[in-house]
User: Which sequence fits this backbone?
């Protein structure tokens, strides 16, 4: 069985999710200005990015753990009947 991938994506997706969350907070701070320019949809874009990031973080962690478990079970010697 091949080794699990070294770059599992957890850090990248987690950082992206945090950045989307910060974008939501910043955009909410400027909500009045966004309303003046009819651009409140930016807030919803950031909310969607954050929500997808939460799902993505869950998914890549689950995938990483599955790779590690499969690699660990393949590396262990089988203890069959002697």
Assistant:
């Amino acid at each position: 069985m091949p080794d699990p991938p070294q770059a599992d994506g957890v850090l990248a997706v987690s950082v992206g999710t945090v950045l989307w969350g910060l974008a939501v907070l910043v955009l909410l701070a400027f909500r009045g200005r966004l309303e003046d320019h009819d651009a409140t949809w930016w807030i919803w874009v950031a909310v969607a990015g954050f929500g997808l990031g939460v799902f993505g973080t869950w998914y890549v962690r689950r995938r990483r753990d599955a790779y590690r478990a499969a690699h660990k079970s393949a590396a262990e010697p089988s203890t069959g009947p002697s």
About this structure: The radius of gyration is 21 Å. The CA atoms of residues 23 and 52 lie 14 Å apart. DSSP finds three helices and no strands in the chain. Residues 10-74 form one domain.
